[in-house]
TrEMBL record, chain A:
Name the record gives this protein: ATP phosphoribosyltransferase
Ranges where the ATP phosphoribosyltransferase catalytic domain occurs: 53-197
SUPFAM superfamilies: Periplasmic binding protein-like II
Lineage: Bacteria, Bacillati, Bacillota, Bacilli, Bacillales
Subcellular location: Cytoplasm
Automatic annotation (TrEMBL), chain B:
Name used for this protein in its record: Histidyl-tRNA synthetase
Pfam families xrefs: tRNA-synt_His (PF13393)
UniProt domain Class II Histidinyl-tRNA synthetase (HisRS)-like catalytic core: residue ranges: 11-252
UniProt source species: Lacicoccus alkaliphilus DSM 16010
Keywords: Aminoacyl-tRNA synthetase, Ligase
GO MF: aminoacyl-tRNA ligase activity; catalytic activity, acting on a protein; transferase activity
Length: 200, 267
């Protein structure tokens, strides 16, 4: 049996929609059930449901053989995993945003300090970063920082809070990742699953 | 920790070091505190380093490094060494056992790998499931033959199949290789490169280990977590997710084999 760690939330919905689009019927019903269970088993595949930042940790340790996670998580932290394939869903991007008429960004609030730090370092721009765990849009509204670096999908959250997008930093997609050891020890089962979901 | 685990580890260490003694390996034991050279930091990031009397010192974190320093500092009559003992990485203690061969010929390397497999086969009811091998020089062969940019290496290391496909196209021989099952890669690479020293050794090893009836996997993405390995590298698995044996070439002319006494499925 192989274990696949799925990211809960929007990416999970995108994944089940992808299964439907590709007629992967054997997985659709069990994964669409409305339940509070943290895992489900379909034939030889155990799906576990985890928070995005925990998915690579499960895969790195070998508790999960495969993970489906946003590339934002892998860009922000370093994990000892195989970064196998981009998947055709979960598209969004990192952006710098702020209040209209903001002329420069000297302070930035973000949950993604490593991504933001690399971006401004590459631009040779001296910026102080403030780490926040969520609702980063509050930071410029309350005067904590000049702007934010955050994930933008539709842009509605920015718009609803009176912020505008200034610079696009990086595209984000769903990715399939794999454990470095069980890729060999469970080769047949892993290839069967990857072929089924269209990676190969 | 359970008593049986401690006793079994010590028994195994005794049997293993006695085997090495019989096979002509020079057994070593050393002080856990040793001189440290800052240029080694890149290869040993989890080593605890401190300063005494204007000299950087460290707590042993890797027997290979300790033995290499020993070998470089003293005139030695032996070429083959064996060890068992603790190492400290971060704040944790691990037990390592293994051998280091300096300037070995191919036959001596094959014999040592065989010796380890034969010995550990008698120590477990489990069977060997797979040996995984690679040599970075094989990637160089692809790069030379197809004039590939150096950036392709990183994509191979992380097995980034979607990006390789995007960069090279789905029909490129390297894309075809990387999307094949890993256990099929060796035959594809053999078809691609008939003449290669790196591949010759891998093929000899494959023949040498045929009697163990385990899957032989060559994967270009396979790399050691220890960055000092710079040529052939291998791991052997029991029916277990962590390797029992790991080893390979380093420092151009040395070869090491380490036994996993923590979670290799043996104890």
């Amino acid at each position: 049996m192989i274990t696949v760690a799925l990211t809960k939330g929007r990416l999970y919905k995108d994944f089940t929609a992808y299964l439907e689009d590709n007629d992967l019927n054997q997985y659709i019903d069990p994964l669409s059930e409305d339940t509070r269970s943290l895992y489900t088993v379909v034939d030889n595949v155990k799906f576990i449901f985890a928070k995005g930042p925990d998915v690579p940790t499960y895969v790195e340790s070998g508790v999960a053989d495969i993970g489906i996670v946003g590339s934002d998580i892998i860009e922000e932290d370093t994990f000892n995993i195989l970064n196998v394939s981009q998947l055709p869903f979960g598209d969004c991007h990192f952006s710098v945003a702020g209040l209209p008429d903001q002329t420069e960004f000297r302070t930035i609030a973000t949950k993604y300090t490593n991504v933001a730090s690399k971006y401004f370092r590459d631009k040779k721009t001296d910026v102080s970063l403030v780490h926040l765990n969520g609702s980063v849009e509050l930071a410029p509204l309350l005067g904590l920082t000049d702007g934010i670096v955050d994930i933008v999908q539709t842009g509605n959250t920015l718009k609803d809070n009176g912020l505008i997008e200034y610079e696009k930093i990086l595209d984000i997609h769903a990715r399939l990742i794999a454990n470095k050891r069980t890729f060999y020890t469970k080769e047949d089962e892993i290839y069967k699953f990857l072929t089924e979901i269209g990676v190969f | 920790m359970e008593n049986t685990l401690i006793i079994n580890r010590l028994k195994l260490a005794q049997d293993y070091t006695e085997l090495l003694d019989r096979e002509g390996y020079h057994l070593v034991d050393m002080n856990m505190v040793e001189p440290f050279y800052i240029e080694d930091k890149e290869h040993h990031p989890s080593t605890i380093i401190f300063e005494r009397n204007e000299q950087l010192m460290s707590i042993r974190s890797d027997w290979t490094r300790s033995l290499l320093n020993y070998n470089e500092n003293f005139y030695l009559s032996q070429r083959f060494f064996g060890y068992f003992g603790p190492v400290v990485r971060g704040y944790e203690t691990f037990y390592q056992a293994g051998v280091e061969l300096y300037g070995p010929g191919e036959d001596e390397v094959l014999k040592s790998i065989d010796m380890h497999l034969s010995f550990f086969k008698t120590k477990t009811a489990d069977t060997y499931s797979a040996v995984v091998v690679n040599n970075d020089k094989l990637i160089d062969l692809y790069m030379e033959k197809y004039g590939l940019d150096a950036s392709i290496k990183e994509l191979i290391y992380e097995k980034n199949i979607s990006e390789i496909r995007k960069v090279l196209g789905g029909d490129h021989p390297l894309t075809v290789l990387m999307t094949a099952k890993v256990s099929d890669q060796i035959d594809i690479i053999n078809d691609e490169f008939q003449e290669s020293e790196a591949l010759d050794f891998i093929n000899h090893l494959r023949s040498h280990l045929a009697d163990y009836n385990m899957k032989f996997i060559l994967d270009l993405s396979f790399r050691s977590p220890q960055s000092y390995y710079n040529g052939f590298y291998f791991q052997v698995f029991l029916n277990h997710d962590y390797p029992l044996l790991s080893g390979g070439e380093y420092n151009s002319s040395a070869f090491g084999i380490a036994v996993n006494l923590s979670n290799g499925g043996l104890l």
